[in-house]
Amino acid sequence: MGLLNWLAELVINLNSQMDKASLLAEVIAHLKELKRQATEASEGLLMPLDIDEVRVEQQEDGLLSAPYVIRASICCDCKPGILSDLRQALDALHLIIMKAEIATLEGRMKNVFVMSSCKEGDSGDAKVHQFLAGSIHQAFRSILDKFSASQEFLLKSTLSNKRRRVDSFKPSLSSSSGDLW
């Protein structure tokens, strides 16, 4: 049912003295259905979430014939310098970036990287895989924390730089003799 048809039906129900509780229940049910439909429609699309998130997982289907393929993503607010920090972190881990996707929406961004380890002998060692995935997760998390902390610091320093008003005629500023000077 289209949104306009649903609203028309709702107006008819309002005119027939539908009680407020059942009207609210119907609106909530319809919103849940719209959210479900939107989720289904956007499935498979790269879209930023409303929450900050870091995900690291093993890629099941190996692109190219890489020794070990990892898919890592970070979702956060768009901030200057974050892409540079991500690149430096991945370079420090000596990973080969095979694919990178970036999506932005209303000041949010989601970066997805498909990468592999450089070493040929890493293909079967589960401990190495866990260490590498943990290192990527830790690097992405520290970048996310760094930018979150800098935003929090900016907000606090902006608020604390405001001048306080001082009343020069408070009794505590007068001398013991009662004179101001």
Structure description:
- The protein has 181 residues and is of the alpha+beta class.
- It folds into two domains: 3-42; 53-157, Alpha-Beta Plaits, CATH 3.30.70.260.
- Helix content is 45%, strand content 20%.
- It has four helices and four strands.
- The protein has helices at 3-15, 20-42, 82-92, 126-160, and strands at residues 53-58, 69-77, 95-105, 108-117.
- It has a four-stranded antiparallel β-sheet, covered by helices on one side.
- Helix 3 (82-92) packs antiparallel against helix 4.
- The longest helix is centred in the last third of the chain and has 35 residues, at 126-160.
- The radius of gyration is 28 Å and the shape is elongated.
- The protein starts with a helix and ends in a 21-residue tail after the last helix.
- Residues 62-66 and 172-176 have low confidence and may be disordered.
The gist of it:
With about 180 residues, the protein is of the alpha+beta class.
Largest sheet: 4 strands, antiparallel
Q: What is the residue-mean pLDDT, rounded to a whole number?
A: 75
Give helix and strand order, one letter per element, not per position. HHEEHEEH
Structural class comes to: alpha+beta
Instruction: Name the helicity range.
Output: 40-55%
Describe the SSE topology.
Layout: H1 3-15, H2 20-42, E1 53-58, E2 69-77, H3 82-92, E3 95-105, E4 108-117, H4 126-160
Helix pairs in contact: 3-4
List its traits.
single chain, 181 residues, alpha+beta, Alpha-Beta Plaits, 2 domains, 4-stranded antiparallel sheet, 4 helices, 20% strand
